[in-house]
Amino acid sequence: MAGSLGRLFRGFQSFTSLPATRAQLSHPPAFFSSRTMVTLPSFLSSKPRDFSLPNSSWGPEMLRLYELYNSQCEVETEGGEKQEGSWQRLPSYNRSLKFATGGVYLSKIIQSKARLFTRNIREQGAAFEYVLFNNKEEQRCVGIFQAGHLLEGPPGHVHGGAIATMIDTVTGTHATILSGPVMTANLNINYRSPIPLGSTVLIESSLDTKEGRKTFISCKVTSTDSSKLHTESTALFLSINVSHLLRGG
Ligand SMILES: CCCCCCCC(=O)SCCNC(=O)CCNC(=O)[C@H](O)C(C)(C)COP(=O)(O)OP(=O)(O)OC[C@H]1O[C@@H](n2cnc3c(N)ncnc32)[C@H](O)[C@@H]1OP(=O)(O)O
């Protein structure tokens, strides 16, 4: 039981896109011989796709901000050595536990067709394009989000539920980094100005305080130059024992 829960916990980390699971998740496809190495189409590859890497749908602003933060993930010392920088890019997959092993306990909560819903639309750029970066020292997490045409709410603008989804994604991932497995208990959003469809925005999450099982987080969504405030929100996450999920909540 303890072993299964341990495996489940590691899988749970991948649910929230944590980098700790990267090594576990990488299974290089065994389709090449020692002499030839063939690049396979992605649907034949057993390697999970990391959705937080740039793709052809990313506009110039999305790419610019990605480069801005990504360039701070690794720095070069005076001696020319590479070192971890202040930011860390968080990889993101569309399945929670596909690559975790486990028996009855996993199958109780994970259906084989289950997919992370922000990552389940095939057409690139159509819905949620985003990448998260974490700054451990500053206890801050940043999401760069490009909203696609399938997320329409008011004509030409992003649906409030889609915005809430992204706030929950960024703050929830941040809370998991800070506190381990958590669930959203409360999410409070003030919508200040609409987000045009197709635009790129910044989602900035910062730790307010931790009290026992409670992690309180604040989050702002702004235009990429920070001149326009789109939403202000606060969130409460409660640390859970993974058995909470096994019991069906
Ligand atoms: C990759 C993407 C990652 C994104 C992460 C996404 C995370 C999610 O969206 S999770 C899905 C949405 N959330 C849910 O479904 C959660 C449903 N709710 C639950 O399961 C439970 O109510 C849960 C776990 C939050 C709390 O239950 P439980 O552990 O029994 O706590 P409980 O004993 O009721 O309360 C503990 C403390 O928290 C407080 N508390 C609980 N809920 C709330 C709340 N909504 N508001 C304020 N305080 C609360 C209680 O008052 C209590 O405080 P104190 O200890 O001071 O008396």
From TrEMBL:
The keyword Nuclease does not apply. Its EC number is 3.1.2.2. It holds the Pfam family 4HBT. Residues 156-226 form the Thioesterase domain. The keyword Mitochondrion applies. It is a peripheral membrane protein. It comes from the Eukaryota. One of its GO terms (biological process) is apoptotic process. Keywords: Apoptosis, Cell membrane, Cell projection, Cytoplasm, Fatty acid metabolism, Hydrolase, Lipid metabolism, Membrane, Mitochondrion, Mitochondrion inner membrane, Transit peptide. One of its GO terms (molecular function) is hydrolase activity. It catalyses: (9Z)-octadecenoyl-CoA + H2O = (9Z)-octadecenoate + CoA + H(+); octanoyl-CoA + H2O = octanoate + CoA + H(+); dodecanoyl-CoA + H2O = dodecanoate + CoA + H(+); decanoyl-CoA + H2O = decanoate + CoA + H(+). GO terms for cellular component: mitochondrial inner membrane; mitochondrial intermembrane space; ruffle membrane. InterPro entries: HotDog_dom_sf, THEM4/THEM5_acyl-CoA_thioest, Thioestr_dom. It is found in: Cell projection, Ruffle membrane; Cytoplasm; Mitochondrion inner membrane; Mitochondrion intermembrane space. Belongs to the THEM4/THEM5 thioesterase family. This is Acyl-coenzyme A thioesterase THEM4. It comes from Lates calcarifer (Barramundi).
